[in-house]
Amino acid sequence: MVYQVNQADADYLEHILNSVSAMLTKYVDDVAIAIVAFGPGIHLLGTQPTRPISAEHRQRIRGMAQNYGVELIACGNTMKGLHWDRDRIIPEARIEEVGAAALMAFQEKGYAYIAW
C-alpha cells in the first residue's frame, strides 16, 4: 500500500497513522507500506517542521520505519520550494525528485493507492 500524505493537520495525520498501524497489525509481515509526503504533509518527515506536528506523530512515523520497514518518501520538489536540504528530513526517509511520480511508481509495482 502507498499512502499519500499532503496535509499537516493533526486529525488528518492521526487518521493516516492509525490506518497504517491497523494494516501492520492485520498483516504483520505480509504487507509492504510506503508513505509519500509532499506539500504541507512533508512536515511530518521534517527534522524541524515549521508546521505544528506533534511529538507523538513524529515518533510514530519514525517507529513505523525503524520497526516495521515502512518506506518514507519525501518530495524533492516540495523541499526545494521550502528551501530544505537533506538535513531537514528525518534519516529514515528518502528523497524522490517528484512525490507524485513516486506515487505512480508504487502503483505500477502493484501497490494500492490510499489518499484521504
Q: What would you note in describing this structure?
A:
With 116 residues, the protein is of the alpha/beta class. The chain has one domain (2-114): DsrEFH-like (Hypothetical Protein Ychn, Chain: A), CATH 3.40.1260. It is built from 4 helices and 5 strands, in the order βαβαβαβαβ. The chain has helices at 10-27, 55-68, 76-82, 99-108, and strands at 2-5, 34-37, 71-75, 93-96, 113-114. Strand 2, helix 2 and strand 3 (71-75) form a beta-alpha-beta unit. Helix 1 (10-27) packs parallel to helix 2. The mean pLDDT is 96.
What oligomeric state do the depicted chains represent? single chain
- CATH topology: the name is Hypothetical Protein Ychn, Chain: A
Describe the main β-sheet briefly. 5 strands, parallel
Provide the structure class. alpha/beta
CATH superfamily: DsrEFH-like
Just give the CATH class.
Alpha Beta
Bin the helical content.
40-55%
Count of spatially separate domains: 1
The number of helical segments is: 4
Secondary structure: number of strands: 5
Please state the average pLDDT score: 96
Indicate the proportion of strand residues.
15-25%
Q: What is the approximate shape?
A: globular
Compute the gyration radius: what is it? 13 Å
